[in-house]
């Protein structure tokens, strides 16, 4: 099983949150697995699609969740620019920006990744920080790169999600 979601929890809420996330996902996938890869950061493994898993959690979000990212593509540092270009080109929109989050990878520089992807897409898509159609989230975890394309604010979990 491949990971489908990255979920961050509020500080000190990781144990409580793990149980609440399981409660939401076990409804549709009895084999769901949750790995805490870093304090307050979980990888969710499921047979469900990333959007199905996201929908189950966001429909009644646990109050302990900070952010939730669907995983659209798993890459590594050597292929990040090619994979990001393929993923961005597969969607139909005009404006985007890249937000890189380094969760413990000491070899990578997020700023360089953001600029590199932006330059790679020059002439194909417009970089717009104020009014993007979508945001490409680049989560660096260990030696893997998890790419997510989401609308602005879609990764945040709040009462407004309902």
From TrEMBL:
Keywords: RNA-binding
MF terms in GO: RNA binding
Pfam name, any one: THUMP
Cleaved signal peptide residues: none
Positions of the THUMP domain: 32-151
One GO BP annotation of this record: tRNA modification
Protein name stated in the entry: RNA-binding THUMP domain protein
Organism: Acidianus hospitalis (strain W1)
